[in-house]
């Protein structure tokens, strides 16, 4: 476990997973073990969404790859690159066509192994400033590699169902998110969203490089506010590089989580 501290703020990271963000004694991150979700944060790469309708196949110029829901990145382990009092950096490396054991098999998937047809390096950097937490991502690969990226943090709520969200003057209730179900509630063409908490200070989330969010929960005590490069639940998503972002070689994304006064 790695701990960051800055004045009145504290962060805990467990093998690259953000498991705690406390400001002025208030916890803002969903706690593992509570109802709702078994994690506190995660990343979705190189695809977002379920691939079962595509027979778990993603078509690329280097051939077909096998990917399960939200990609294979989450099956890889982070390596610690650097750390100091206010910042920590992790990295995952993948060699093309390497088989990765699928943790969803056999209970939730028919695919025992996953693979991707490109090399990549994926970096996650967490920086704690005063009342602000910044999560930066860098993806390095050959130019033209197709990909989607989603960040999947879960925020602790009051369990009253009274929290709301605002983006581009649209008010979204927790009931709206619950009703969206497994598809998640889309907030498109937006780089910022406000979480209005019931029992503590509000959170302002600003992003760079994603341009969309989706919101997901099945309970009243947490919500996942997920910056995404693409929302894939409108149609029967056909996964291929024709509808994915193409790498520039190095690709940068950022999420800023700020506790408002």
TrEMBL record:
Signal peptide range: none
One GO BP annotation of this record: carbohydrate metabolic process
Keywords: Calcium
GO MF annotation: an example: carbohydrate binding
InterPro entries named in the record: Gal_mutarotase_sf_dom (IPR011013), GH-type_carb-bd (IPR014718)
Source species, domain of life: Bacteria
Cofactor field: Ca(2+)
Keyword hit for Calcium: yes
Oligomeric form and interacting partners: Monomer.
Name of the protein this chain belongs to: Aldose epimerase
Organism encoding this protein: Polaribacter gangjinensis
């Amino acid at each position: 476990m790695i701990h960051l501290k800055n004045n009145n703020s504290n962060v805990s990271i467990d093998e690259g997973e953000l498991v705690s963000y406390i400001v002025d004694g208030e916890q803002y991150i969903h706690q593992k073990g509570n109802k709702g979700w078994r994690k506190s944060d995660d990343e979705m790469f190189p695809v977002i969404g379920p691939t079962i309708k595509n027979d778990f196949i993603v078509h690329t110029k280097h051939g077909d790859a096998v990917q399960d829901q939200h990609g294979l990145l989450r099956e890889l382990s982070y390596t610690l690159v650097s750390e100091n009092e206010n910042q920590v950096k992790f990295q995952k490396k993948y060699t093309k066509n390497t088989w990765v054991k699928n943790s969803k098999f056999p209970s939730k998937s028919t695919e025992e192994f996953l693979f991707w047809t490109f090399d990549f390096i994926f970096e996650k950097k967490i920086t704690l400033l005063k009342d602000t937490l910044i999560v930066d991502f860098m993806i390095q690969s050959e130019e033209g590699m197709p990909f989607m990226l989603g960040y999947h943090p879960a925020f602790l709520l009051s369990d009253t169902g009274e929290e709301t969200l605002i983006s581009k003057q649209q008010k979204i209730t927790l009931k709206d998110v619950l009703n969206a179900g497994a598809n998640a509630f889309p907030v498109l063409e937006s780089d910022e969203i406000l979480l209005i908490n019931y029992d503590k200070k509000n959170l302002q989330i600003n992003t760079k490089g994603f341009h969309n969010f989706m919101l997901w929960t099945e309970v009243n005590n947490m919500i996942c506010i997920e910056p995404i490069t693409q929302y894939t639940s409108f149609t029967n998503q056909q996964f291929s590089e024709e509808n994915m972002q193409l790498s520039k070689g190095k690709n940068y994304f950022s999420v800023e989580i700020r506790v408002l006064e």
